Amino acid sequence: MKIFVLNSGSSSVKYKLYRMTDESIMASGVVERVGTNEALLHHRVDNGSPKTLEIEAPDHTAAVRRILDVLVDPDPTMGVISEIGEIAGVGHRVVHGGERYNESVLVDTDVLAAIAENIPLSPLHNPPNLAGIRACMAAMGQAPQVAVFDTAFFAAMPKRAWMYAVPMEWYTTHRVRKYGFHGTSHRYVTARTAELMGRPVEQLNLITCHLGNGCSMTAVQGGRAVEHSMGMTPLDGLVMGTRSGEIDPAVIFYMVNNAGMSLDEVARALNKSSGLLGVSGVSNDMRDCEAAAGEGNDRAALAIELFAYRVLRYIGSYWAVLGRLDAIVFTGGIGENNVAMRGEICNQLADLGVKLDPAANEAGRGREGAVSVADSPVSVWVVPTDEELMIARDTVGIVSGAAGS
């Protein structure tokens, strides 16, 4: 079975085509600058050299059609299938499913309406996600389309974890509550960590740390999310590349009333000019901050310290929520590759039973495996995330189920 996975952004369409018999990637790529006269399609066949094509992609439908044209191109350095009909289903990343979906679903008119209904909760992501689905429906006829929601993994959190202490009408009328994001990533690394530990996921308590330009953490109890750092939007929680993470809400009103900023300016600053970038004044990239700190830049050093401290504080609070902790899992660009950051966080947890293995941690740069000593009461793992594979697996299950019904 061949599964096509799509991640549609406002001006880009990322894709992978999987052969699910061995979960291998047959081809992958991205269309950039969708909606402009300068669209580029970057395409790569498995084990092949990257190719870049200048294409016309005035909208998502045109972008998807060009991707499909490339996949069936007779040139073996481009095409990997003989006809589009070989694709058994398409899995779409959809950021927001609201309260309606706690799992991936086959797309129908009700699902399309629900994605549109949640646009106010995710105005930057749901519109292009929806456009990608409609583009595939237009270009691929009857091929089953599956929506995989980032929010679904958090749908089973207890109400005390997602309810805000605001007037109840804010929730009942305006849907103000914690939803959570990066769910497909947290779900993947949860399942994979259980495999690596050789234990049923139902028996494990984990804290999963997705650390990159966007950062989030999840407390997982028996395979189910019970707490999460992001909130109604991805702005809450940890320090991120350009996002502030948690702040006193009154800061917003203070800056409006005392600094002459508009609400739009404050929102833009908290989302685009804060986090590592805002504190360091150097970059939103942890590697740049580390280089600057090494040269004596105190602001960059403070940004790194603040980043690590916030992760440490969330680990402590989630540990208390779980009661018992079996493992801490690092994923994402920083979580997978930054040896120093993992060491800074875990070494401060030594008295609580986290025993990092320095040699394993150094060797675990971007590689899957344990980075704690064998007898550590709480093990530490690096598990590179694979959201696209998770989407492909969900799509296979739903398409197979629909075919058998």
Can you walk me through this structure?
This protein is α/β, with parallel strands linked by helices. The chain folds into 2 domains: 2-149, Nucleotidyltransferase, domain 5 (2-Layer Sandwich); 198-387, Nucleotidyltransferase, domain 5. The protein is built from 15 helices and 14 strands. The chain has helices at residues 60-71, 109-117, 126-140, 159-162, 168-174, 183-197, 250-258, 263-272, 275-280, 286-294, 298-322, 332-337, 339-347, 358-363, 387-404, and strands at residues 2-8, 12-19, 24-32, 39-45, 51-55, 87-94, 105-106, 145-149, 205-211, 215-221, 224-228, 327-331, 369-370, 379-382. The strands form 2 sheets. The chain has an 8-stranded mixed beta sheet. It has a 6-stranded mixed beta sheet with strand order 11-10-9-12-14-13, with helices on both faces. The longest helix has 25 residues, at 298-322.
Residue share in helix: 25-40%
Mean pLDDT: 95
Task: Please identify the structural class as seen in this structure.
Answer: alpha/beta
The CATH topology of the largest domain turns out to be Nucleotidyltransferase, domain 5
- The N- to C-terminal Cα distance equals 18 Å
State the CATH class of the largest domain: Alpha Beta
For the biggest sheet, the summary is: 8 strands, mixed
Instruction: Give the strand order, joined by hyphens, for the main sheet.
Output: 5-4-3-2-1-6-8-7
Q: What's the architecture of the largest domain in CATH terms?
A: 2-Layer Sandwich
Q: Which percent band covers the strand fraction?
A: 15-25%
Q: Count structural domains.
A: 2
Taken from the alpha-carbon principal axes, the silhouette is: globular
The CATH superfamily of the largest domain appears as ATPase, nucleotide binding domain
Number of helices: 15
Q: What would you report as the Rg, rounded to the nearest angstrom? A: 22 Å
What pattern of helices and strands is seen along the backbone? EEEEEHEEHHEHHHEEEHHHHHEHHHEEH
Low-pLDDT runs of 5+ residues are none
